[in-house]
Each structure stands twice: as structure tokens, then as C-alpha cells.
Amino acid sequence: MEDIYAELLQKTAAGDQLAFKQLYEKCSPKLMSLCLRLMQTEALAEDVLQEGFIKIWDKADTYTPGKGKAMTWMSTVIRNKGLDKLRSLKTRPVETEAQFEGLEFTSSDLTPDSMEDMSQEMQGLMACLDTLKPSQRECILLSYYYGHTHQELSEKLGKPLGTIKAWIRRGLEDIRPCLN
Amino acid sequence: MPKLDHNTQGAKRYQNPEVFEQLAIEYAVGSMQGRARKRFEVLMETHFYLKATVEAYENKFANLVELLPDAKAPDSVWAGIEAHIKESAPQEEKAPWWKANFFKQGFAMMAMALIVTAVMLYNPMSNHNPISYSAMLESDTNGPMAFTKIEKSDMMIKVDIMKDVKIADDMVLTLWCQPKKGGEPMKMGTISNKGKTNIKISEKQWHHMKDIGSLAISVDHKDKTSEKNPAGKFILKGQLSSSS
């Protein structure tokens, strides 16, 4: 499938501000959604999104299309920014009224229409995740979308810390051959 | 889980694909955390196969973003990005001196270069022009409570109280800027004990921000809000950091 954002990212690398704005307009809704889940507060999410896009502008010339899609590269830049920010805080901020939680949007009972909208890479990843036990799948997805620590997952799911660590370790061991 | 160790013997273990593949996937998914994550980042700087493996897994997991519902960011986010681009726009490209008719303009250029160098050395702000400052304000007992952002694009201090601060009816919260080198704190205004408060700042106050080390919020009696120094105690504090 053609990577619709790669061209915009490459123009951005050449200093094309109009292309960068188009890239922001097209990609920021998904990336803001990721920031909201990682950071849990709108103010921090906005801050991470802004700093992340500034990094994308500054580092666009390091993107190599052969290594992956533009959107996955940008998601990684922004998510690592968010994880760095979380690491710099003594304790994780908590929104008074939890708005961003759960994994309903990852439900494996997706309609054929929504499956059609997915990239081949995503369909492949979904197939790999579906081979895992539900508890392993849940822990891995919560780690990815919410940046939860093992301790946070233990409290959230009401399971012992050792169990959570084992679920994640085994889950990642099991999914590796499928991903590769 | 394989133990992460950064000594030589430990580093050798990462040449074992079974070990480093597992660590790489844990890093990529985000389940490797804290000091282990930091140590792994140091190792990645010198072990390119680790970096390449992590990047490959990061690329695979990053597809998960496709499943997220859209969420529109406020216009202020793009305004901040745009301000950064304008601030950091490179000066007009100059041809190298050997191509630039040096011998016709040589002395004038040399004189100009000397002046620019002198100004840059003299002016400590010449290589650092922040476009925003931010601070996470934390309480000693409840952790992060408020996020504060100060942006040049709208000359506003935005305080977002994330967990309501309980105060008596006759009390009020006040925001202060504390200079890096000590001395009297600068009063910025009173703020609400819940939700968001915006405080307009002047050009002069914006320029002062480079000398500010931390922000703090005090609880004061309502009848003492006109005082220049905090009368009550500080309940939230946080280091101010700049981004340019």
C-alpha cells in the first residue's frame, strides 16, 4: 500500500512548511489520541504533541522510507517523547475524571469495513496479537497505549506483580516469531 | 526476564540474540521501564544491532496507532510549533568564502564576522531563545497536581489544576515565580483551585522568565492578596524548563 505521508515528510525534511502543516493536519488527530492516553491529562498531552512535532520538523531528514512508514516513524518519535516526559515526573499525573482508559477501540471483533481501512501491517499485527492469551494481549496493549508500569498494571488489573511480569514476558516471547 | 547489566560481562550477553531480541521487544512495547530503560538507551548508542532491532519492533508496534479514535488538538498546539519554526528559521544560506568573491569583499566580510562573533560572545541570549516554558507543580504528599505552560505565542501563563486543591472559603491560591539566583519571588496572580486559569503577562515579564528557576503556588488569606510577598505557605512547587 502506498505511504501517503512519506512524501509530505520528505518535503518537510527539505524545509517545506506547507507540507509540514498538511502532515500535522492529517496525522495529529491520531497522535493526539495517543498522547492523551499516555499522559492522561490534556495539558500534558498537548505539550508532548507540540514537542514531538517540533522534533519531527527538526529530525525529518533522518526518516528513511525503506525502514518503515512515515506514520509509524512519527508515532515512535511522539511516544518516546511521552515516555521521557512520564519518566521525568516523580509520580504519574491522574486526571480527576478518567476519560482515557480501556481498550474498546482495539476489539478483535472489528467490522469488515474497519478491517479494510487497516494497513496490511496492522492486519498482520492484529493477527499476531490474536494468537496470545487475552490476559497477555491486554497487558501488552495497555503497556503500549498507556505506558503503564508493571506496578500500575498490577493495581489496575488486581493481579500480583509477578503475574503481570510473567504475562508480559511470555506474551512478548510468544508474539516474537509471528512478528518476525 | 534477562537482567540488564551495563558492565563488560553484561554487555557481552547482549550479543546473544535470544537475550537482546527479548530486551528489544520489551523496550519497544514500553514494558521496560525506569533505570533499566535508561541503561538500555545507553547501550543502544554503542550497539547498533540493538538499535536496529528496537527500531524494527517499534515500527511494528507503532501500527497500533491506526486503531485509535481521532482527537483534535487545540489550535494553540500548532501555533506553538509554528512559532518554533519561525524562531529557528536558518539565516539565508551563504556561499562558502572561496566561492563568494572573497577578494572583492574580503575585508568587509571579515569585519562583519568579527562584529557578529563579538556580539554573540557578549550576548548570552544569542543562542537560546525559548518559545515556551513549562513546569509540573507537585505537592510533597500528592505528587503532580498542576501543569503550567507559558508561551510566547499568546503571552499567557496557563495553569491547569489536574487534581482539585481543597482550601477554606477565605483562602486563595497565588502563583509565584522564583528566581534561579534566589531573592524575592515574583507574584504572577491568583488562580482558581480547580480547572484552568490563564494569566496574561507583559513583554517584560516574558523576558524575566529566563531568570526564573521554579514556579510555586501558595495558599493565602483572601485579604492578603495585595501583598508583594507570599504570606501563606507554598503547597505546590515545580522546576521551570524551557523549550526552544
From TrEMBL, chain A:
> One biological process GO term for this chain?
DNA-templated transcription initiation
What GO MF terms are annotated? Answer: DNA binding; sigma factor activity
Query: Which UniProt keywords are given for this protein, alphabetically ordered?
Result: Sigma factor, Transcription, Transcription regulation
Q: Give residue ranges for domain RNA polymerase sigma-70 region.
A: 23-90
Database matches in SUPFAM superfamilies? Sigma2 domain of RNA polymerase sigma factors (SSF88946), Sigma3 and sigma4 domains of RNA polymerase sigma factors (SSF88659)
Q: Which domain of life is it from?
A: Bacteria
> What Pfam families does UniProt report for this protein, alphabetically?
Sigma70_r2, Sigma70_r4_2
Domain RNA polymerase sigma factor 70 region 4 type residues, every copy: 125-174
NCBIfam families, per database record: sigma70-ECF
Query: What PANTHER family would the database entry show?
Result: RNA POLYMERASE ECF-TYPE SIGMA FACTO (PTHR43133), RNA POLYMERASE SIGMA FACTOR SIGZ (PTHR43133:SF62)
Which protein family is named in the record? Belongs to the sigma-70 factor family. ECF subfamily.
* Name under which the protein is recorded: RNA polymerase ECF family sigma subunit
Lineage runs: Bacteria, Pseudomonadati, Pseudomonadota, Gammaproteobacteria, Thiotrichales
TrEMBL record, chain B:
**What ranges does the record give for the region Disordered, renumbered to this chain?**
223-244
What superkingdom does the record give? Bacteria
Name of protein: Anti-sigma-K factor RskA
